[in-house]
Amino acid sequence: MEQIIEQSPDRGALAPAVLAVAVATFTVVTTEMLPVGLLTTLGDGLGLSDGTAGLTVTLPGVVAALAAPVLPVAVRRADRRSVLCALLALLAGANLLAALAPAFGVLLAARALVGVCIGGVWAVAAGLGVRLVRAEDAGRATAVIFSGIAVASVLGVPTGTLMGTLAGWRWTFAAMAGLALAVAALLALLLPPLPPRGAVRPAEIAGLLRIPALRAGLLAVALLVTGHFAAYTYVRPALERVPAISPEAVSGLLLGYGVAGVAGNFLAGAVAAHTPRRALLTVSAVLAGTVLLTARAGGSLPATVTLLVVWGLAYGGVSVSAQNWLMATVPAHREAGSALFAGIFNAAIALGALAGGRAADRFEVAGALWLGGTLAALALGAGLAGLAGRPGAGREPGRGSRTY
User: Fold this and answer.
1) pLDDT digit string, tens, across residues 260-294
2) Domain assignment of residue 142, given as a range
């Protein structure tokens, strides 16, 4: 692999660059998850069932899963700053197309373009923390970049839900188009030049799958994320089953979920910087128990609120824990590893939304929750089995040395 020698970055000068990448991840995740908060209004506006409307989450996940490993290969010689700016500009166009879509088919085409942006942004951005700050600050920078996921839940989805309730779902997508265009300009202004560190090739990505620890972790992540999105895609209908709950109250509960997610991101990030596997196993256990209990909460508002907050706290730690663990497992192949991780992650989002939709249509919303909790429990089992079945079980990847 071609080696590119870079000067050690100055943390003070590049802190705005880390924040700019975090804003980019916030924007793509908000766009990806927007239909979760708009599911009812979008379905009513286009005459769709909850399961069919859920395809607006499923399709971007499928496309992102394909784009994540392909895009780094396709743009292997391009400066990563230029790639990120182009993807955010494309995201703006996709959101504008969604806002103007005259029929469900056009909306799905727009969401397919969103999938290209999601896969590309995550494949590039997930491993940038180590390039934008000094080595000792890379774990914190990665947590900041991944905080865009949790902040999307705090600000993005609840704000989009409220806007959809007040002005309609089309205006929500139009607003996201403007935000994505502004973020593209921000990235162009704040990011330093980021030449590729050697060309990523398909054989390099495929070769990573021969690493047993990587396979075990990816299986656990796939099951966990599939389970989460099988349940979370239908969280709004689940909340609406609570007696006398208003649309405004639903937005407030989603806000509480998001606030907990931000806390979970940084809490798990602090743990994952030293023991990433332990952090991932812990959030798997908490997520499994919480989703299964939510399925049994029924119409109890106090129980639903408590469980939703714990759910957000647990899921907020998934991405940063998994990414830290991945970087510790394949430190010499960060971009290829990130591309593989992003592909698996987004395939799991798509599969989860699809499986949850089928369960919701056949067994009502509770069926999606039971399915999600069961898959999260299987993720915990897969992680424990992978740890027990390898030599040196009980040692964290990178234990005794720096994570990055």
Assistant:
1) 888 888 888 778 777 878 888 898 999 999 888 88
2) 15-388
List pLDDT tens digits, range 196-220.
765 566 666 677 777 777 777 888 8
Q: From residue 16, give the alpha-carbon distance in Å to each of 146, 190, 265, 404.
A: 15, 7, 20, 21
Q: Decide if 234 is inside a domain.
A: yes
Compute CA distances 267 → 48, 141, 175, 260, whole Å: 39, 14, 31, 10
Helix axes 157-167, 169-190, angle to 10 degrees: 140
Number of structural domains (the chain) is 1
Domain membership of residue 1 (yes or no) is no
State the DSSP code for 156.
I
Residue type, 249: A
Which helix (H) or strand (E) segment holds residue 219: the answer is helix 212-232
Does residue 261 form part of some domain? Answer: yes
Write the single-letter amino acid at 222.
Answer: A
199: domain CATH number? 1.20.1250.20
- Which phi and psi (to 5°) does residue 50 adopt? -60, -40
Spatial separation of the C-alpha atoms in residues 176 and 152, rounded to whole Å: 12
CA nearest 69: which of 203, 213, 217?
A: 203
Closest CA to 311 of 233, 258, 385, 237: 258
Q: How far is it, in rounded angstroms, from Cα 230 to Cα 50?
A: 13
The answer to whether residue 399 is domain-embedded is no
Question: What backbone torsions phi and psi does residue 336 show, to the nearest 5 degrees?
Answer: -65, -40
C-alpha to C-alpha distance for 327 and 398, rounded to whole angstroms: 9
Question: Which pTM does this prediction carry?
Answer: 0.72
